[in-house]
Give the backbone structure.
Amino acid sequence: MEKIVELTSKNGVVIFSKTSCCISYAVVALLEELGVRPIIHDIENAPNEKEIEKALTGMGCNGPIPAVFVGGRLIGSINEVMSLHLSGKLVPILNMYHPHQGLY
């Protein structure tokens, strides 16, 4: 879990995902459509894949994949990201970490 905290706190938008996961693909596509270029950590086939998933679940991610972090804070998985997006709250959160990009 310490490694996850370290990785997510040093970067603006971080996604833990799996290449073969269509939900991960959808979250990445949404963020890229909004002008965000997230740091993506593909854990598929990682030697510690199950440990990472367990740590993400322990941090409160419902998925556990994809797990979206903004500014070191866990936003959540697809349900949380889409809820924020549909309610108009996602872009303001993203703008705090990408103000110069002029997101939608």
The CA atoms of residues 37 and 69 lie 13 Å apart. Strands lie at 13-17, 39-42, 67-70, 73-76.
